[in-house]
Amino acid sequence: MTDLKQDMPTIPEPTDGTTEEEKTFNEIAELSKNGYLLLKENHIDEAENSFRKILDLESDNNYALVGLGDSARKRNHYREAVDYYTTCLSFHPGNNYALFGLADCYKALNQYNKAIEIWEQYLQHDDRNITVLTRVADAYRKIRDFKQSKVLYLRVLDMEENNPYALIGLGHLHYDFKEYRDALYYWQKMLEMHEQSVDIRVLTSIGNCHRKLKTFEDGIVYFERALTMDNNNFYALFGLADCYRGMNQQHLSVGYWNRILENDPNNKVILTRAGDAYRNMGDYEQAITYYQKALDIEFDVYAVLGLAMISKIQGRFEEAAVSLVRLIQSDAKNARLYVELAECYMNLGEKQKAISVLQDFQKTGIRNQMVSDMLDRLRA
After folding, report:
1. Do residues 65 and 97 lie in contact, with contact meaning Cβ atoms separated by under 8 Å?
2. What is the mean pLDDT of residues 12-40?
3. Which of 48, 84, 116, 339 sits between 20 and 30 A of 245, alpha carbons compared?
4. Per-residue pLDDT tens over the stretch 93-103
């Protein structure tokens, strides 16, 4: 029997006057709007489905490619996101959203030079975008380009006085370059702006500046305030412990080291710091326990040094010297090890050995005042 359908004339479907091209455009617009709304609400799977439907209709659609890049970036799948953004840019050079996303991915991948290159391209189209300017300044800070980073942060402050991201960036920048007084200035400005709702990180950053400047009593005020906001904040506890250590109040310092260890019992650095505190308090048994706990985790120069110092204090100079010689083999540029070893040899009556040890350090090409002064005394 003949299939009648194939002989029937094609009857056009009723339309509302829109062309197929217009229908496709409208469908893409709706899918795009829906996709970005879903993405904003963190429904990433559904958002991706919308963006892929767009690509079925238009394979080089910039909204879909950027949307898929943003979706991958939200999942922290940065390399996948890079592929989508670069594909978009191959079809749509200069697309700001693709450039922004691509630069952010490179930043997340710690490829700061690449991030800077992309952000600079973005700024050619929009050189007053504060968000991008602060990101570029952050990236320059990460690659330790102090001058360029500072120029951009200050440019942001010229555009928006007291911009918090620029102030925070300048605080970190000066701190990273050991310009602690300048860092303190910017962190204090942040505190003045948000006195009643200050971020705990601002308080610990101010405290750390005082710690580095050795104005320990001033630092304690900020670390204690931080602790009222978070009783177990690592940076506040560490800051307080280190300030009291700097003030030689080991009995107060050790309490904060132990509070950190309650939350993080296998923190090797803190175990050695606590060991040092007990050693300086004369509680050698406790100090040995803490140093040994650190060494049970893995080899630690300062734990072995602490044990050697106890041997030295207790008059076991040969035992201490053996440990110090081994430490120098693994940490040949640590001036303190040579000074401690030289003192052991002096206590053993071996002055020439002490001089030779200090001369060995000088052969490394590093200048150290403590080593030079001790050599001068021994040669006198």
Report:
1. no
2. 82
3. 339
4. 989 999 999 99
Q: For 185-194, what is each residue's pLDDT tens digit?
A: 999 999 999 8
> What are the distances in angstroms from CA 164 to CA 112, 188, 211, 226?
22, 12, 23, 19
Residue with tokens 């110090």: 324
Q: pTM for this structure?
A: 0.83
d(CA 136, CA 115): 8
Tokens encoding 111: 């490829």
Give the CA angle between residues 223, 165, 78 to the nearest 5°: 105
Checking if the pLDDT of 149 tops 70, the result is yes
Residue 4 has pLDDT above 60, yes or no: no
277-291: pLDDT as tens digits: 999 999 999 999 999
pLDDT in tens, 220-244: 999 999 999 999 999 999 999 999 9
Domains of the chain (ranges; CATH) run 25-127 (1.25.40.10), 299-380 (1.25.40.10)
Tallying the residues shown for the chain, one arrives at 380
SS in 3 state form for the chain?
CCCHHHHCCCCCCCCCCCCHHHHHHHHHHHHHHHHHHHHHCCCHHHHHHHHHHHHHHCCCCHHHHHHHHHHHHHCCCHHHHHHHHHHHHHHCCCCHHHHHHHHHHHHHCCCHHHHHHHHHHHHHHCCCCHHHHHHHHHHHHHCCCHHHHHHHHHHHHHHCCCCHHHHHHHHHHHHHCCCHHHHHHHHHHHHHHCCCCCCHHHHHHHHHHHHHHCCHHHHHHHHHHHHHHCCCCHHHHHHHHHHHHHCCCHHHHHHHHHHHHHHCCCCHHHHHHHHHHHHHCCCHHHHHHHHHHHHHHCCCHHHHHHHHHHHHHCCCHHHHHHHHHHHHHHCCCCHHHHHHHHHHHHHCCCHHHHHHHHHHHHCCCCCCHHHHHHHHHHHC
Q: Are 135 and 126 in contact (CB under 8 A)?
A: no
Give pLDDT tens digits for 101-123: 999 999 999 999 999 999 999 99
